[in-house]
Amino acid sequence: MITRRGFLESTGAALAAMPIRSLGAAETADVVVIGAGLAGLTAGITLADEGAKVIVLEANSHVGGRTHTLETSHAKLDTGATTVGPYYARVRNLMKRLDIGQVLPGGRGDMTISVGGQLLHPNEWENSEFNKTRGAERKLAPWLLEARLLSPDNPLTNPFDWLEDRFDKYDVSLRQLLQSRGVSDEALRLIDVTINANDLDTSSALLYLRDLQRLTWSSTVKDFSKFATYTPTTDGSSAYIEGGTGVLPKAMAELLGDRVRVNQPVTGVTTAADGVSVQCRDGSYYRADHVICAAPLAVLKDIHWQPALSGSMSELVYGTQPTLVTHVFFAVEKPFWEADTGHPAMYSDSILERAFAPAKGPAGEVAFLDCWANGRSARQLDAVPLDQLGDFATKIYTDMRPAAKGKIRFLTSYSWGRNPYVRGNKHEYHPGQVKTVRAAIEQDTAPLYFAGEHFRIGEPGMEGAAESGERAALKVLGVL
Ligand SMILES: Cc1cc2nc3c(=O)[nH]c(=O)nc-3n(C[C@H](O)[C@H](O)[C@H](O)COP(=O)(O)OP(=O)(O)OC[C@H]3O[C@@H](n4cnc5c(N)ncnc54)[C@H](O)[C@@H]3O)c2cc1C
């Protein structure tokens, strides 16, 4: 009996044995890009702009990866990225080029707090008996704890410092770093809710400090006009993409036209002396002088690499895991928050964790709530049968916030962990792995390059993905 793995290995070995140019009917290009998320699309556009023949292969039926907008009859729901930072040079330049508008966030900033089953107005938090944090921590809203506690003594002075060995002593777990700063156990428990990671033990503090430094830097810039490469909003604030974040990758793919092929999951990549062959699940294959793989790290183990991935790249692919995020969306049928705290968004220590209430524009209405669960909570939500999730989540929410009873309606959920082509929110590098990440970023050379948010250097989120795609494309252009 031929197993899938056996089949991949035998076909991969056979392909590796023959020169790529003798493969006959394959479509050819200068560069094949694997994955049409922001990293892959940015690489594709950068290459096409310079006249390279490029093909972008996307496994899913649509482009965008973690920038995906679900269109429901109630509202457009961003399941992945929502916010464009004021300092996102590449993303903002693309928006300008593609004539994509932005909407400034509205709403009421603060969040209602539900801790230990008690609903609190944010102003009540400091002196509440349900606030079991200590000393200066008491003044801080739970969702601000780690940033406020770590920012003042952030050893990194710019977003690139993490690349230097001298900061390796911070490549410990977030829990260790916070404990070394005297953070209380209760504050650690509350931080575990907001932290954009699976938990405080499995995530490297050094990379958290990098992202914190980048945020701090942006919030201290008073005059963005001094930064010629940035095209921020006039007041330096963040923005949403008009029509939903999915508008951006769609427009990028339209710019690339028939160079982008959807429903093409890549199953094998074979490198030989005269080029690279890329095989897809439907049996089609492509050959190119260079390949940029911009698929998430978590799915690279599903691709048959010939020769096998080695060194630090292999260590990361087989030795890390993505962070889990699951959303639960509720339609707001009637505003209910004036009956309790006045703030529609809510932080809670339940498995629904944070319920965001996006409002677009200064007078923007809150049409839906987006409950965002990380790590353990996401895993718990994912274990609930889909046909029961609506009732399950509605009960949790309305038990915490009775004023919402009858005023919200379960819309849908979205689990990134269950997306077979992404498998999570972002890649979680474990304490002690930063050296390997640095080495893997350096490791790729002709004809096989890697891009994606997992290899971002100084920028976060979408901008980081675009940064990595641009970097890979520039490397290829340097040798084409
Ligand atoms: C819930 C959530 C909220 C976020 N919020 C923000 C935010 O507010 N602001 C921000 O800037 N960023 C945010 N991000 C992060 C941002 O979305 C990502 O950093 C960025 O979109 C990643 O882009 P990428 O191209 O690296 O990967 P992806 O977008 O994952 O793209 C990879 C692509 O590769 C494809 N693929 C996988 N396997 C194969 C294969 N075998 N063959 C072919 N194609 C394959 C996938 O289908 C996918 O389309 C958020 C992410 C999540 C999940």
Short description:
This protein has 480 residues and is of the alpha/beta class.
Descriptive overview:
The chain is of the alpha/beta class and 480 residues long. The chain folds into 3 domains: 4-65 and 243-320 and 429-479, FAD/NAD(P)-binding domain (3-Layer(bba) Sandwich); 106-132 and 325-415, Alpha-Beta Complex (Polyamine Oxidase, Chain A, domain 2); 140-225. Helices cover 30% and strands 19% of the residues. Residues 1-18 have low confidence and may be disordered. Bound molecules: flavin-adenine dinucleotide. Residues 34-40, 57-60, 65-67, 80-83, 265-266, 294-296, 299, 303, 325, 416, 421-422, 425, 452-453, 461-465 line the site of flavin-adenine dinucleotide.
Write the layout of secondary structure elements.
Blueprint: H1 4-17, E1 27-34, H2 38-49, E2 54-57, E3 69-71, E4 76-78, H3 89-97, E5 102-103, E6 112-115, E7 118-120, H4 145-150, H5 174-180, H6 185-194, H7 205-220, E8 240-241, H8 247-256, E9 260-261, E10 266-272, E11 275-280, E12 285-293, E13 304-306, H9 311-319, E14 321-322, E15 325-332, E16 346-348, E17 354-356, E18 368-374, H10 375-382, H11 386-400, E19 408-415, E20 427-428, H12 434-443, E21 448-450, H13 461-479
Bound molecules: flavin-adenine dinucleotide (FAD).
